[in-house]
Specification:
It is found in: Mitochondrion matrix. This protein is an alpha/beta fold. It contains 12 helices and 12 strands. The strands form 4 sheets. Strands 2-9-10-6-5-4 form a 6-stranded mixed beta sheet, with helices on both faces. The protein has a two-stranded antiparallel ribbon with strand order 1-3. Helix 3 crosses helix 9 and helix 6 runs parallel beside helix 7. The mean pLDDT is about 95.
């Protein structure tokens, strides 16, 4: 079959196609994102690859966790890939993003490498936070992390949006939280400030239907999360379709950049794993439910089917991408399991960004550690 692949030239493929996408539900908006999206072959292949890397990376993390190589908190993102990749393709790399602790996918789209992410999960020196952050605390340029306190990243994101407005560079901040955090008081305080100050902030609720083991219906008196900004306009988006997410994000970004203040997006999505690795994920939902989402609305399958049925890529070509991705993940896992752990003397480094070396008290008043910026 290799010969067949080689003989099909790229000229045979459709370079771009237009797809009908699901209409968003609107709150306080006259009109919403377009009902059609243009996808080029290049974009399609890039989205497919990134989502596959994300999916494989999370499955590898699951495996390493079960082998006790990754320990502690670990929240996996598989199932929600269209959200991260869709949002990223609707904003600029100079825009800012902050999320909760299900952060591996965003660390990747914000420029982290698979090696850095995997090594951070195993707590090694080559990790993206030098092995000190672990699963919930990864950072990159214009990416303010993984944050471990439920809902606490939302006011921080509004602070970043305030800085965007203050500096006047026409940048914005995407501020993500889950349905489980949507009832936190600090979120409503932030809505109020953001609306008063017209901050360029896109609040995004990634609604994956369960906050830990509690379904949205049992946790929220109103599950219309996109309307809960009250005085802030909102959109409810199909979070399993990357094109829906991309178009809605572009629409929201345009809203913010034109000085209209904050906007809210609810992405309806689904996580295949449990809340974290300590949750088998099937005590509060059935295996059939998970299987049904996988078979009917998997974000990767959806994109793949679109591309193949519109002659934008061949099955063989996508399989080749899968093989490359698998290899990339294997190499990263190999690095993450062999890279050394950080030495004790690195413990207190980087407390400040630009200060002369200082002494830090250890576990008792006599133990002194050194901190270097």
């Amino acid at each position: 079959t290799r010969v067949v692949v080689a003989s099909r030239t790229y000229a045979d493929f459709t370079p771009q196609a237009t797809f009908d996408i699901k209409k968003c539900d609107l709150h306080k908006l006259e009109e919403g994102p377009p009902l059609q999206a243009v996808l080029t072959r290049e974009e399609g292949l890039q989205y497919y690859r990134t989502m596959q890397v994300m999916r494989r990376m999370e499955l590898k993390a699951d495996q390493l966790y079960k082998q006790k190589i990754i320990r502690g908190f670990c929240h996996l993102y598989d199932g929600q890939e269209a959200c991260a990749v869709g949002i990223e393709s609707g904003i600029n790399r100079t825009d800012h993003l902050i999320t909760a602790y299900r952060a591996h996918g965003y660390t990747l789209t914000r420029g982290g490498t698979v090696r850095e992410i995997m090594a951070e999960l195993t707590g090694r020196r080559g990790g993206i936070a030098k092995g000190k952050g672990g699963s919930m605390h990864m950072y990159a340029k214009h990416f303010y992390g993984g944050n471990g306190i439920v809902g606490a990243q939302v006011p921080l994101g509004a602070g970043v949006a305030l800085a965007c407005k203050y500096q006047g560079k026409n940048e914005l901040c995407v501020c993500l939280y889950g349905d489980g955090a949507a009832n936190q008081g600090q979120i409503f305080e932030t809505y109020n400030m953001a609306a008063l100050w017209k901050l360029p902030c896109i609040f995004i609720c990634e609604n994956n239907k369960y906050g830990m083991g509690t379904s949205v219906e049992r946790a929220a008196a109103s599950t219309d999360y996109y309307k809960r900004g009250d005085f802030i306009p909102g959109l409810r988006v199909d979070g399993m379709d990357i094109l829906c997410v991309r178009e809605a994000t572009k629409f929201a970004a345009e809203h913010c950049r034109s000085g209209k203040g904050p906007i809210l997006m609810e992405l309806q999505t689904y996580r295949y794993h449990g809340h974290s690795m300590s949750d088998p994920g099937i005590s509060y939902r059935t295996r059939e439910e998970i299987q049904e989402v996988r078979s009917k609305s998997d974000p990767i399958s959806l994109l793949k089917d679109r591309m193949i049925s519109n002659n934008m890529a061949s099955v063989e070509e996508l399989k080749e991408i899968d093989v490359e991705v698998r290899k990339e993940i294997e190499d990263a896992a190999q690095f993450a399991t062999t890279d050394p752990e950080p030495p004790l003397e690195d413990l207190c480094n980087h407390i400040f960004s630009n200060e002369p070396p200082m002494e830090v008290r250890g576990t008792n008043p006599w133990a002194k550690l050194k901190s270097i910026s």
